[in-house]
Write a structure and sequence with these properties.
166 residues, Purple Acid Phosphatase, chain A, domain 2, five-stranded mixed beta sheet
């Protein structure tokens, strides 16, 4: 893989899922990494713009072979029944240009409760709805923020990881 697009917290917004997929088509990454909270908005969030989980399903399912997804705190077994890609993995691992990337939503495994990381590893989490990219002692912490419900005055966002630059 040379290029991946990373997004989190779509929360059932057809509008922002459509915007994300427009960027996906333009960027032409090898994979789309989704860090959870795909269909449901959750009890603490207002409804996102164009809340239409069935439309989100219809947009994402054709990309089933290009999506790598982990489970968010709003994702359930019912979601897995309608999505054609795995949404129930608590975490996933990718090898990207000699780096290990650990994918997690961030509600269980995050920068405060981390797995064992090696020099140069990347920990990718969503959940907070706040974008962040920081080099830590021996690893890089990245959070793409939220596609549909950004918090703390952040923008609707995603990340691109390309070769060894991000």
């Amino acid at each position: 893989m040379k290029k991946i697009m990373i997004a989190s917290d779509i929360h059932g917004s057809a509008y922002y899922c459509r915007k994300l997929l427009e960027r996906y088509e333009a960027e032409k990454p090898d994979r789309l990494v989704l860090l959870g909270d795909i269909l449901y908005h959750g009890p603490r969030n207002d409804l996102p713009k164009e809340y239409a989980p069935k439309e989100v399903i219809a947009m994402l399912n054709p990309l089933r072979n290009e999506i790598i997804c982990v489970r968010g705190n709003c994702d359930t077994e019912v979601d897995q029944m309608v999505l054609d890609f795995n949404v129930l993995a608590e975490q996933a691992y990718l090898n990207f240009n000699d780096r290990s990337i650990i994918l997690a939503h961030g509600h269980k495994l995050d920068e405060k409760n981390m797995p064992a990381l090696k020099e140069g590893d990347i920990l990718l989490c969503g959940h907070t709805h706040i974008p962040k990219c920081e080099k830590r002692d021996n690893y890089i912490y990245m959070n793409p923020g939220s596609v549909s419900i950004p918090k703390e005055n952040s923008e609707h966002s995603y990340m691109i990881l390309e070769d060894k630059f991000y």
